[in-house]
Amino acid sequence: MSSTTPTYTIRLFTNPSGTEVAAAEQVLADAFKGDNFTEMTVGRDPALVLPFGRSVLTAGLLEGTVYVAEDSTGTIAAVAVWFGPGTEYCHTELQQEKALKPLLSQLIPELQVWWSDQFLGEYNQMISDALGSEDALLNSWHLQLIGVNPEHQRRGLAGKIIKLVREKAHAEGYAVTLEPTTEIKRQVYERMGFATKGHHVFRAPKDLGESPMWSMIYSPPSGRT
């Protein structure tokens, strides 16, 4: 009995239909089910993991760049939300209104305050301290979120998308930045050539737990960061 290795196509997710968007949201929800960082930020409510991914995907479709990997049947297997130079997640009023506010409105009041008054500020400070500039993300290709459907994991899809964008970034003279939230993922990115520049532990209110995050960068040959 012979086995066939699945084939995948990576493409820009432009002008997607409502059905395609829903499928991409579900991939992210399935990918981050049980993820400590994601569940901490939404109050340990499994039902809010999908809205979390929807928030990031919406922002990416508005002002970022989204790639998907599809199998031979056209089924979306992986989703990656990027923000290129000059853009950033929820950096504009449009993203805040269309992407961030709908998510925050579903959180318990304590978490809404934490997101607005603490978490986002801590995140920005971590990046600034690690990369040496408040505009580090605006001056790089930043991977905001990448998720692979569990049925399609361990086939190198995340790595292929990252390498594709890394080549594009380097051709433009930009670095690539990302922030893993587990030691295993940090080690994976390190093997891909990313350098760890900073580390921070985020702590949510109401005993919702804590999660580490690392700031990592892959600089272009010119050394531009």
TrEMBL record:
SUPFAM superfamilies found in the cross-reference section: Acyl-CoA N-acyltransferases (Nat)
PROSITE patterns cross-referenced by the UniProt entry: GNAT (PS51186)
Family matches, as InterPro entries: Acyl_CoA_acyltransferase, GNAT_dom, Trichothecene_AcTrans
UniProt domain N-acetyltransferase: residue ranges: 74-221
CDD domains in the cross-refs: NAT_SF
Highest taxon listed in the record's lineage: Eukaryota
Gene3D superfamilies linked to this entry: 3.40.630.30
This protein's name: N-acetyltransferase domain-containing protein
